[in-house]
């Protein structure tokens, strides 16, 4: 698999997106800042190192030796879909199409409630911890522990009721460095809602489930969709696992320092630009967001740069060993296929090539073919050659 796609798993990609587009999505998630591209960090979207442009001609065996491929472990695909899974998928889609209807019933677990909450600590009002007209699902668990406590205390209350709830604020909740302390919330229930599910008709089935022609084939359509999703997730997991096995099983002899340096400089520029966007020094940025000093950050970036270089060597070495090529014709066809599946983002393969660069597309193209080859070998379907 291509180097960038083995960044930490917070962006495990959606297989609905082509690989290059998944890379952009993943980087934006990993950096948690949409301004990354605007700051000119496009270099981070290009996994293929420029030092490996001629990797087909270079003897990479001086850097590492690939493992015996017979040692790869294979996870067979479980191609079953249960009735309960089908029922759950239909129910989930129906709930998404449902409407909230106001009710006179008291708050119960699972219903939606709109309410005001005003926080008081030692009798002093805290507007920053208060909210008017918040709408939440009662009984749901939220990342905000205090909100979850309040929702639990709302059960059994009715529209118009005003009451107080005592809670314990966790440390840091009422301000940076603040201790854990008690607080009182004055609550006003503004409205209680229940979900009204639509009647599942032929017409609704067609509109909610792509490929469905009506109730008669609803379950088979949903089953096929779930099966395709399962296969996609399986291939994604298996491809990642097999490539990781390939990397871990390789005997590393040395790393080209210029490639490590290139990756390190790309990473360093990224974090420097993020720090600049926050009007912080890199040292302050590392301390605030990563709980590291600058020296520790640099050390971790060097470690990641070495990992990226190793993965790049493995990718290219395996491609060369298995006769997997990336000719101009193949890259052109690949770029055209990405353009066709980009939902109008690109009108041609030439635009894709111009936007992402040849190295990024080469890395992605090899990634796709290497993963397919690894799965074929591990499953026993192919033995050498491509």
What does this molecule look like?
With 386 residues, the chain is an alpha+beta fold. The protein folds into two domains: 3-66 and 250-378, no CATH class; 99-196, Chitinase A, domain 3 (Roll), CATH 3.10.50. Helices cover 47% and strands 15% of the residues. The protein has twelve helices and seven strands. The chain has helices at residues 19-31, 35-38, 83-96, 145-154, 202-208, 218-249, 257-277, 282-290, 294-321, 328-340, 349-356, 358-378; strands spanning 64-65, 99-103, 112-121, 124-137, 162-169, 181-196, 251-252. Strands 2, 3, 4, 5 and 6 form a five-stranded antiparallel beta sheet that branches. The protein is extended, with a radius of gyration of 27 Å. Mean pLDDT is 85; it is low at 1-47.
Q: What secondary-structure arrangement, pairings included, does this model have?
A:
Layout: H1 19-31, H2 35-38, E1 64-65, H3 83-96, E2 99-103, E3 112-121, E4 124-137, H4 145-154, E5 162-169, E6 181-196, H5 202-208, H6 218-249, E7 251-252, H7 257-277, H8 282-290, H9 294-321, H10 328-340, H11 349-356, H12 358-378
Antiparallel strand pairs: 1-7, 2-6, 3-4, 3-6, 5-6
Helix pairs in contact: 3-6, 6-12, 7-8, 7-9, 9-12, 10-11
Index terms:
single chain; 386 residues; alpha+beta; 2 domains; 5-stranded antiparallel sheet; 7 strands; 47% helix
């Amino acid at each position: 698999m291509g180097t960038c796609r083995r960044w930490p798993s917070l962006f495990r990609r959606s297989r609905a997106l082509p690989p290059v587009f998944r890379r952009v999505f993943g980087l934006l998630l990993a950096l948690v800042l949409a301004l990354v591209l605007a700051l000119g960090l496009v270099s981070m979207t290009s996994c293929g190192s420029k030092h490996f442009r001629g990797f087909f001609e270079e003897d990479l065996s001086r850097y590492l030796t690939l493992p015996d491929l017979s040692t790869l472990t294979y996870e067979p695909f479980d191609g079953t879909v249960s009735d309960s899974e089908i029922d759950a998928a239909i129910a989930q889609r129906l709930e998404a199409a449902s409407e909230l209807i106001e009710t006179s019933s008291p708050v119960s677990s699972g219903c939606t409630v709109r309410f005001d909450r005003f926080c008081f600590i030692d009798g002093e009002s805290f507007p920053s911890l208060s909210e008017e007209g918040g709408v939440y699902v009662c009984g749901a668990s939220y990342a905000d522990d205090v909100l979850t406590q309040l929702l639990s205390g709302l059960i059994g209350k009715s529209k118009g009721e005003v009451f107080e709830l005592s809670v314990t604020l966790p440390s840091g909740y009422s301000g940076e460095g603040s201790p854990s302390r008690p607080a009182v919330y004055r609550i006003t229930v503004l409205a209680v809602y229940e979900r009204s599910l639509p009647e599942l008709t032929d017409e609704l089935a067609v509109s909610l489930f792509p490929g469905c022609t009506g109730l008669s084939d609803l379950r088979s359509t949903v089953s096929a969709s779930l099966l395709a999703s399962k296969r996609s997730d399986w291939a994604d997991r298996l491809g990642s696992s097999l490539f990781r096995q390939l990397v871990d099983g390789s005997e590393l002899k040395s790393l080209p320092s210029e490639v490590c340096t290139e990756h390190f400089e790309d990473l360093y520029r990224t974090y420097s630009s993020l720090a600049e966007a926050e009007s912080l020094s890199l040292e302050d940025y590392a301390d605030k967001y990563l709980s590291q000093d600058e020296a520790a950050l640099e050390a971790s970036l060097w470690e990641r740069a070495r990992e990226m270089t190793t993965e790049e060597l493995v990718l290219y070495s395996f491609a060369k060993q298995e006769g997997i090529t990336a000719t101009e014709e193949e890259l052109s066809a690949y770029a055209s296929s990405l353009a066709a599946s980009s939902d109008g983002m690109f009108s041609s393969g030439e635009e894709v090539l111009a936007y992402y660069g040849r190295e990024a597309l080469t890395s992605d193209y090899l990634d796709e073919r290497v993963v397919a080859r690894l799965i074929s070998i591990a499953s026993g379907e192919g033995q050498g050659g491509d």
